[in-house]
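Design job #97: recover the sequence.
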């Protein structure tokens, strides 16, 4: 009796995460700016990878869904800081959904704050 060899191969294609770039003047007095939407491709948290905030100021970011309902908590970020934003509840499971990031300032900032960096609804 001859041995029988069966081979199979599985090819998996990982979806490439969407990465958005931002460079905005965020209004003072608690003003905010909302990015365009990006498609979520994995069950990971979101990320905001800031490169600069004018005047060394701390700003705030959070993720929202298509209806602009929060899907993460609001997180503060300093200039040059990378922050991971875990999704609330089952929001991380909505692969294929479109999400936006809101960047906001403090009420005590009387002038606009320029900020720039990169963000994604997926951190991997």
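Job complete. Output follows.
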């Amino acid at each position: 009796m001859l041995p029988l060899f069966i081979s199979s191969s599985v090819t998996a294609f990982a979806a490439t995460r969407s990465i958005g770039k931002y460079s905005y003047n965020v209004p003072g007095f608690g003003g905010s700016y909302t990015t365009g939407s990006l498609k979520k491709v994995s069950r990971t948290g979101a990320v905001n990878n800031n490169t600069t905030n004018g005047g060394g100021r701390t700003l705030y970011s959070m993720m929202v869904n298509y209806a602009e309902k929060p899907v993460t908590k609001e997180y503060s970020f300093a200039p040059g800081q990378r922050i991971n934003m875990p999704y609330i509840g089952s929001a991380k499971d909505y692969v294929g959904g479109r999400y936006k990031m809101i960047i906001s300032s403090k009420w005590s900032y009387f002038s606009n704050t320029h900020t720039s960096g990169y963000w994604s609804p997926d951190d991997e």
